[in-house]
Amino acid sequence: MERARFMYKGEQLAMMAAFKGHATFGFWKGSLVMDAMGQFGRLTSVADLPDEKTLQTLIHKAMDLTDKGVKPARTKHPKPDIAMPDDLRGALDADPKAAATFDGLPLGAQRDYLEWITEARHVETREKRIAQAVKWLAEGKKRHWKYETC
Length: 150
Known about the structure:
The protein is of the alpha+beta class.
């Protein structure tokens, strides 16, 4: 697959990807430029694109949005909350320093620990992870502390 980005005044205007049997083309500011999320879908020939005048109009519309400073809409996809497992809460309550560290972590860092522990498939693995988590938290460490200085 080959990819190309088309830039205008330092911002991405459009992008294209070529595959063995087809290509795709779309505008970065997608639905602000045209319907169908700003994409032309699967292109198997030049005939799949609109006529030259229409394409020029769309390109100029995208350029005008950049000139006006319009940014594409960003959609946030919040992750569902993970409930605090009783066994982890019990282990944290037994070590006040670990509990204080955990409670003081940002939500994302708390989620890292919660996901790690709740995704364990076996009871033994879960117990080992809880013990390791309490140890690291008592030392004031986040779940991925090893990679903070990379």
